[in-house]
Write a structure and sequence with these properties.
This protein has 295 residues and is mainly alpha-helical. It is 60% helix and 0% strand. It has 11 helices and no strands.
């Protein structure tokens, strides 16, 4: 007959640890390795899709992003990439089905990752282009409420307000973002663009320089800073090159050249290894017409 053993302090020595402890731990570790492997494969699919898109092969890009979802059904970046792809296609084809697919993919990206800023920007742009501005504003305001300590939603609201031709509100959102994060590179660059548009060139130059100090990987800001410097700043004073007496030969100049952001390595030519490397589009760092999505 089977004996029922009740746990009592006196029985502790008679209760053995399950013999499968080590096997169970190994199984858990194996599952983690498989999951990580699927995520890595999906990310590689995303990178291949981005490369195909840049070559203009939209069909291959679509296949790569869908393959990413097969390998990782919860991959928010793949949903975002498909949203961006169909957003681009919709603006060319003007077919309602493409607009609907783009919107659906953006929404699925946010369902998988409610903090994916590119998906907020892409979806808000799509809604604006479909003349659904109030829905776009509501979307970004909800993002801001969920992240009260982040300047990023406020910068996006500023960009959207500028696009909706509400400069006063755009400026207020931007000032709120700067107060929240005084060193936010995107907000500083947006403030520089706003001041440039207002003709406040000195302040714009200062804002662009501060933005690049926080994050140099902003090619558009580098270009604007260099253009303003060429247009408004006087060329550096030059002095005659001294010559050794009696030789008639010029002495090679010494010293260093003045700092020029345009002469720095262009980040666009350097592989992007950051979190956006597997995404189709990154947003410009200052508000301008068509500031969102793939143009």
């Amino acid at each position: 007959m089977f004996q029922i053993l009740f746990f009592q302090p006196g029985n502790a020595a008679r209760i053995r640890k399950p013999y499968f402890d080590a096997s169970y731990a190994l199984l858990v570790l194996l599952c983690l390795v498989i999951t990580s492997g699927c995520n890595w494969v999906a990310q590689n699919n995303n990178l291949n899709g981005v490369a195909s898109y840049r070559r203009g092969d939209l069909q291959a890009a679509d296949q790569a992003f869908r393959q990413a979802l097969q390998n990782d059904p919860n991959n928010a970046e793949a949903y975002y990439n498909l949203g961006s792809l169909y957003h681009h296609i919709a603006k060319t084809s003007q077919r309602p089905v493409d607009w609907q697919q783009a919107e659906s993919f953006y929404q699925q990206a946010l369902a998988k990752n409610p903090q994916l800023s590119d998906a907020y920007n892409g979806l808000s742009t799509l809604l604006t282009e479909e003349r659904r501005g109030p829905e776009a504003v509501a979307l970004l305001e909800n993002w801001a409420r969920q992240n009260p300590q982040s300047a990023e939603p406020l910068v996006a609201l500023s960009q959207l307000s500028a696009k909706l031709e509400d400069p006063a509100r755009a400026q207020q959102y931007l000032y709120d973002a700067i107060r929240l994060e005084p060193t936010n590179a995107q907000a500083l660059a947006a403030l520089g663009k706003m001041r440039e548009d207002a003709g406040q060139i000195e302040q714009a130059l200062a804002n662009y320089q501060r933005a690049l100090q926080q994050d140099f990987n902003q090619p558009a800001v580098q270009e604007r800073l260099a253009a303003l410097q060429r247009q408004y700043l006087p060329p550096p004073a030059t002095s005659p090159t001294p010559q050794p007496m009696g030789t008639g030969q010029a002495v090679p100049p010494t010293g260093t050249l003045p700092y020029n952001p345009a002469s720095q390595p262009n980040p666009a030519t350097v592989p992007n290894l950051g979190p956006n490397s597997g995404r189709l589009a990154t947003q410009p760092s200052y508000p301008s017409p068509g500031a969102f999505g793939i143009q």
